[in-house]
Specification:
heterotetramer; A: about 160 residues; Alpha-Beta Plaits; 3-stranded antiparallel beta sheet; two-stranded antiparallel sheet; 3 helices; 8 strands; elongated; B: about 625 residues; alpha/beta; 7-stranded mixed beta sheet; binds ligand SFD; binds adenosine monophosphate; binds iron/sulfur cluster; binds sodium ion; metal ion binding (chains A, D)
Chain lengths: ~160, ~625, ~625, ~160
């Protein structure tokens, strides 16, 4: 289901070009609008579809196994923190789905590590990562090690 | 060429490829390297790059230690048996003991993790898997990486690692080009964390034409992690252990949520359970130690993924296909129906599109399953990748050379698919490995190991020349012909990819040959790979986009060669259902209960193969 | 559209497709119809059209009766056993008794036939095959056809037969378009001899990308004979009997001259003879009647082609590939070496190119063999085609309805691949069949059977509209999208072909599934073919060349559907090595020693399947 | 091994366009020279190569399995009645072959059937084809029939 771009909707803003992981959304020189230059490298990941402010991009199933006449439309809203899908079958059946995409205002809950207190030498010498052991266990117990867990590494054939 | 050379100097930590591993590395590096210069060089846009670009509906590696669900060693045992005995248990234990901390962080950042309404714990899909609304998984971890990095260079296709000209076998950064401007980018760095991911499209896909973009692993998973590291002379491990996945037919939608949460099950074309029928024969091939259905039933020890594939493949070969996933029962429950659909909308939209296009409603019709073409990666039920040092408090001497997740090249670290021996890390484990590598890289620098690095102008200009050769080649020879892509002087990247995929398919165990290979076939494959390598010197790119494809192909080619060398080396069929060595159809623990390790000499192109011992995690008194 | 409508009226004999069958028909028609109007409508240029465009190095059907070599009935018995019992022996006997006259004519016209210097007889490749310098085989027979025809319309893609509007089930000519001018051509004719050839590219080829042109049968063998006749409601026979060929790997160079004249032989990857190893198991599948190696050895009764394939396929599946053709001995003889090379230069240049490209010199290296994707045709070791009347002096009542080689549609005749039940006709037999059909067509007209034909304007304009729809479709919807070939309203011919090939491969027994199918799979295949047919209504062609591809695809699709219907009908595995019905893995003479006959109702699209008795040629007193 | 056309040799005469059985040799609008518009439908049949008066067309092995660096050149001569091939391997080895393509002056040995005496009614009613029985046997014996050969057609299972 590679993407295609509706001629009358695209305004050539380039958001799709900016986001496509496959580098295949390019701006057509003649029409100054976007199109998929290499459909056989399109993963139908919908990154461009979600990013297009004009809803100008759609997808039609890969011709080598998907018949015509379906559609899967999406609306992703970072403000609302939701994504809405509308699936239309070849036979006309429709299904709608709505999911959250985040539980927090976008990006704000991630700390800036340059601003947190740096690690002590002891911590550097330990096996702990940032904010551990806090995150490892409910009981705030320490990191699992071979010793704490009564284990050793042994050569040979074990199953 | 008019392209500029842009040098970024004085980098402490260069993250090459910011997928799940790379974002973890960049994020964590800032904590341990508060004043260090952290730079990301990424082929795409880190907001939607890598395997998780379209999201994930599950986090497949979570212990739940805080709820008493599993200990790290339980996961190691799981991964061990699933991989037929051969994994790096030090790396796995290490990943498992940290992974929960990664996941809890994700939740704090806003990733919607589903909860079990009764217990309040994360909603389990299976013993190791938890369910998420993960459409924005990648944008969220990218946000974290951006918070930590000094600079993010998007759209840089990294083509080569830079090597220290003053000290043998020490990394010194990386080079590449910007796939939009065409500019040459030089990153001089004390350490490099390679998170450039796994490989699709090395073997001929089942899909054809337009549909060949519909791979399970993303089409942009270009084997760059392997290509970069092998080229630089890093040792690799278990590269033969390519993975074949049971997937919904054509759309390649994952089956985990279906098997584990929806409790759907498979049947053959006659509506029969078939899996267990193949177990007796399989047991003869692999031994009771690796397949003991009764014990599995009692202890919830899994039937290894490859062996489940084997049953599916054998049943189809026997003429009793197609295999169906029985969804019609589960989908009567509206909650499960919703999960079934959202599972795909969240990570493989194409499967939903396909069902819509073919009027398949799994509530009324059981969809078909198939086995995919092989993929090469290191974080699902497979563990190809670089041979890395483990952590000092766990690793035996053969597995330890100073810095966690450091490859056999000094200062070069890996994370995620790049690291060998650590299957079942998945997204969360890959991010965790990135964090571990970042801490170790900071330590490496702080220990003074990166002093005195020299990168000669010769090295920089040699790579520059090499990078643009395909564009030059096109310019020179294009006008010798009237038009079209048939030229006696060059092939284009798509033509080269077709050649690579076809030969890997036919000689190294792809779908067309039902995953069968043998010594003779592998030797022919190597010969053809060598000739292809010569032709890749004559590859032509008509524009920068094709230049990107040319370099992806070169990375894929190198990885494919390494896969073939390893497959030739291991004279047994360790993972029936992933591939078969027709000339050695059994598991042979006496000779092959070892990890395979290869090194390609960057000067001669010759491979050296060795066996490394397999250490297991056992009870203190065992 | 501005395309002109060009009507050619008053034709007596319209030859649709002037390959080997069609040129034979046109040539001979002039003798029996001295004053008749004979017209050729040909898709390409008859000088180099059809399967023989690049020449042939052997004539594979020649009795040599004049030298006492064989009688016609010997050939019938050969074809019968090779096809596992099921052929039209009346048609075969008839072809065989005339074929020598065809070959002697060829020689007289200048075709260089090699001679045995000792005996003066034609140089035998095998019992039935003689060797020629046949690079100009096609230009020579085209010359003959041009001598006889009133008009040759080159570059007309015939899309439909015209039907008489005054009498049910009587042909009235054909329509098509000129692939250069785009003009609409209407041929009103009393009779039509369909020589539009067999089918490549119905099943997914082993080759990919650029290489997919390298098929054994020519890529332009577009199943048009089948598409045209099935659409018109003609009965078809043995359409399930698709052929898989053992061929030199990748180049698809034929093996006949190698096996028979050079006496090369095959071995597996271990250098072992493997064929006989599979015979015991095979004998259980097919019965001793069809495979009796000892008897074969004593009597030179051949091992059926499909069974030889079976051994090759099974050996490869067992992991002992690749199969090699041992050429190194034969090639030490300079004469045989020359034959080995010229054999390909004369009919499959691509094989020579491939060996040159890969530095394979068969004198020093044994080249690889493989089995091809399936082809649908009717003149090699396979006999798909129309259900035709035989000659009155031979045919039993079930096989006779008045005119030799007339299909079940009045006035519509066939020759070569178009005719079912006549395997091993090859080039010479196909030409001979054309001659027979031409004589019968003249008789049909002379008997007054073609009186009063009416072709309504409605029919002519309906077809015109239908033909250009893909161009219209493109025009209307092209600009809805910015650029590219992904459009929600249409697919293009290449995309449709990819879809067809993939589904036939997966559901109807192609290479990817090792030729395996079963009832369930075939039903799914039919469902997908139906949906594809709907999408073919929405096919778009951006220019006249794509319009050609669109119509070729429609013909291929219709033939594929018929093949699938037949494969479903025959509940046995009659030709292991061509395909396997996994749900009926044996030959079942009790129920299936019959010819399968289908008819598609042109109005409803429904198929009716019947069994027709199989008559054998036996001694007078048997 | 699809065809390509050397820019400097082609003069746009169209012989290749006229002969290609696959309809894929077309004239490029810009350069007014020929090229292969659809290499994946090229059978490497060499019809166009043989027909080109300028030797402007060559072939390079299909990229998906044929390495670069080989060539197979041909010279077909209707006057001389021969075809000459030169094969060049990737490793430089060369092989030459020469074969006849006809034994008669081109086309002249084929009779014009409109000018031969038409068939008698008897011949029409027989099973004979043009010029038969002459061509059927050395001894000029008659056509084989079930009767002459002691045969019959019988329903049933025979092997
Ligand atoms: C594609 C896919 C993947 C998964 C799943 C379903 C599907 C459909 N499933 S399920 O099937 O089990 O259902 C999983 C699931 O549900 N849960 C889970 O936790 N993981 C799943 N994965 C696996 C994980 O995604 C995987 O384990 C991790 O992503 C691996 O992480 P990492 O090793 O970092 O790879 P990456 O692809 O994320 O990132 C690679 C980055 O490198 C960049 N890159 C590549 N080459 C480069 C170059 N030359 N220069 C510069 N940059 C260059 C990439 O752009 C990318 O950013
Ligand atoms: C491709 C090929 C074929 C053979 C071989 C090797 C190779 C590589 N071998 S070996 O493998 O055994 O080696 C043979 C061999 O050596 N000796 C031999 O006698 N025969 C061999 N064949 C088989 C014969 O060629 C075959 O039996 C006959 O050609 C069949 O004759 P016929 O049924 O007439 O098919 P055709 O392809 O020749 O002609 C079809 C014509 O129809 C035209 N056409 C098609 N669609 C049309 C449309 N829609 N409208 C108008 N015209 C439309 C075509 O252009 C063509 O002119
Ligand atoms: N129910 C829905 N689910 C998802 N997206 C929707 C829905 N309704 C409207 N949209 C969005 O609105 C755009 C325009 O819709 P349409 O009119 O279907 O093209 C689509 O591209 C969607 O992104
Ligand atoms: N049938 C199964 N039994 C056990 N685990 C499974 C099964 N199928 C998938 N899984 C696991 O579920 C997760 C997702 O699998 P998949 O969707 O196949 O990528 C991985 O951890 C798999 O190992
Ligand atoms: N191994 C074989 N034994 C007998 N006949 C063969 C063999 N291989 C090819 N032939 C015949 O040789 C001719 C050309 O075959 P091919 O080159 O395979 O198309 C056909 O008549 C085949 O039936
Ligand atoms: S994002 Fe949408 S509007 Fe912007 S260029 Fe792409 S298709 Fe056009
Ligand atoms: S769907 Fe994904 S791969 Fe395809 S064009 Fe859009 S962003 Fe690129
Ligand atoms: S035949 Fe030769 S010269 Fe003439 S157009 Fe074709 S390539 Fe050019
Ligand atoms: S080689 Fe044959 S198919 Fe290819 S372009 Fe020339 S004439 Fe056409
Ligand atoms: Na890993």
């Amino acid at each position: 289901m590679p993407t295609f771009v509706y001629m009358t909707r695209c305004d050539g803003c380039g958001h799709c070009v900016d986001i496509c992981p496959s580098d295949i959304m390019h701006i057509d020189k003649t029409y100054r609008r976007a199109y998929n230059i290499e459909p056989n490298m399109c993963w139908e990941c919908y990154s461009c579809v979600k990013a297009c402010p004009q809803h100008a991009i759609d997808v039609r199933g890969y011709a080598d196994f998907a018949p015509l006449g379906h559609s899967v439309r999406v609306d992703r809203d970072e403000e609302k923190g939701t994504i809405a899908w509308r699936i239309k079958f070849r036979n006309g059946t429709e299904k709608d789905f709505l999911s959250p995409i985040t539980t927090k205002p976008w990006g704000q809950a991630i700390p800036q590590l340059a601003e947190v207190p740096g690690p002590s030498q002891e911590m550097r010498d330990s096996q702990l990562l940032y904010n551990e052991p806090k995150y490892i266990r409910m009981d705030d117990g320490g990191l699992h090690t071979l010793e704490t867990n009564g284990l050793k590494m042994k050569k040979g054939v074990y199953y | 060429m008019a392209y500029k050379t842009i040098v970024e100097d004085g980098i402490d930590i260069l993250v090459v490829g910011a997928g799940l591993g790379g974002t973890g590395a960049a994020w964590e590096a800032r904590f341990w390297g508060q004043d260090k210069k952290i730079v990301i060089a990424e082929k795409a846009n880190i907001d939607r790059s890598g395997a998780v670009a379209q999201g994930l509906y599950a986090i497949n590696c979570y212990m739940g230690t805080r709820w008493g669900e599993n200990n790290p060693e339980d996961h190691v045992r799981y991964a061990r048996i699933d991989l037929m005995g051969l994994v790096r248990e030090d790396l796995l234990f290490d990943m498992a003991r940290h992974v929960d901390s990664t996941v809890h962080q994700f939740e704090e950042w806003g990733l919607p993790i589903m909860r079990n309404p009764k217990t309040g714990t994360y909603l389990r899909e299976g013993r190791w898997q938890i369910m998420i609304h993960g459409e924005s998984y990648k944008p969220i971890v990218a946000e974290a990486a951006k918070k930590s990095a000094d600079k993010v260079f998007n759209r840089i296709c990294v083509t080569h690692l830079l090597m220290d000209d003053s000290k043998e076998n020490r990394v010194a950064g990386a080079v590449g080009f910007n796939v939009r401007t065409g500019n040459y980018h030089v990153f001089k760095s004390k350490t490099v964390i390679c998170g450039a991911g796994g490989a699709s499209n090395i073997f001929k896909p089942r899909s054809v034409g337009e549909g060949s973009g519909r791979t399970w692993y993303a089409p942009w998973s270009s084997a760059s992690a392997y290509g970069l590291m092998i080229e630089a002379g890093a040792k690799m491990t278990q590269m033969e252990n390519r993975i074949v996945l049971a997937r919904f037919k054509d759309g390649y939608g994952p089956v985990g949520a279906y098997f584990l949460h929806l409790k759907t099950y498979t049947q053959n074309g006659l509506g029969e359970e078939y899996e267990s029928k193949w177990f007796p024969e399989l047991q003869k091939m692999v031994g009771k130690e690796y397949l003991d259905p009764e014990a599995s039933h009692l202890t919830h020890r899994p039937i290894p993924t490859c062996l489940r594939n084997h049953a599916l493949i054998s049943e189809v070969n026997a003429g009793r296909g197609p295999i169906h996933m029985v969804t019609m029962h589960a989908f009567q429950d509206p909650h499960l129906e919703e999960v079934g659909w959202e599972n795909f909308l969240g990570m493989t939209v194409g499967q939903a599109v396909l069902w819509a296009a073919t009027d398949v409603d799994p509530k009324y019709e059981n969809p078909e399953l198939t086995t995919s073409e092989p993929y090469v990666m290191g974080s699902h039920a497979t563990c190809s990748g670089a041979w890395c040092s483990g952590p000092e408090d766990i690793s035996p001497p053969e597995y330890f050379w100073g810095y966690n997740r450091m490859t056999t090249i000094e200062g070069l670290f890996g994370a995620g698919d790049a690291v060998g021996g650590t299957p079942h890390a998945f997204s969360s484990g890959s991010f965790t490995e990135g964090r571990l590598a970042a801490k170790a890289a900071c330590k490496y620098i702080d220990d003074g190991k990166a002093e005195g690095i020299v990168v000669s102008d010769e090295q920089i200009s040699r790579r520059r020349k090499e990078i643009y050769t395909p564009l030059e080649h096109y310019k020179i020879y294009r006008n010798e012909i009237v038009a079209g892509d048939v030229n006696p002087h060059y092939i284009n990247p798509k033509q080269g990819l077709d050649r690579l995929q076809k030969l890997m398919d036919e000689y190294c165990g792809g779908v067309t040959v039902s995953y069968m290979t043998n010594e003779k076939l592998l030797h022919i494959g190597l010969k053809k790979l060598k000739i292809l390598e010569e032709d890749l010197q004559s590859i032509a790119a008509k524009d920068i986009h094709e230049l990107l494809r040319a370099w992806e192909l070169k990375h894929r080619h190198r990885a494919a060669e390494c896969v073939t060398q390893h497959t030739l080396f291991r004279k047994e069929t360790r993972w029936p259902g992933y591939y078969y060595r027709g000339d050695a159809m059994k598991v042979d623990d006496e000779n092959w209960h070892v990890l395979t390790v290869s090194r390609r000499d960057p000067n001669t192109g010759e491979y050296t193969m060795e066996k490394a011992p397999c250490y297991h995690l056992v009870g203190e008194d065992e």
